[in-house]
Amino acid sequence: MATDRSELTSYEYRQIRARILAASDVCIVCGHGAADAVDHIHPVSKGGARKDPDNLGPIHGVAGCPVCLRKCNSEKSDRPLAEVVQLRTSVDWFAGP
Ligand SMILES: [Zn+2]
Ligand SMILES: [Zn+2]
Hints:
Helix content is 30%, strand content 8%. It is α+β, with helices and mostly antiparallel strands. The chain has one domain (9-90). The protein has a two-stranded antiparallel ribbon. The chain starts with 9 loop residues before the first helix and ends in a 7-residue tail after the last helix. Bound molecules: zinc ion (2 copies).
């Protein structure tokens, strides 16, 4: 069981989240707008920078995406973004072969 929840205090998280979401609300996982949370693009547990805004992107939080209804943040968990996006395209029936 990872106990990485202490990686950011809630105050720091809110500050960083506000800054990221002010720049863009396009989800890093599904590519739709209206993201309401941020997550590490490269997981901290895998060596990603904790507080580097370049390593943080908008993501759909607990409410999920209003467009595709994915729970992007829980889908991503602490996996690298590339892995999650690849996972998505492998089950994307709109994309075709
Ligand atoms: Zn999303
Ligand atoms: Zn979406």
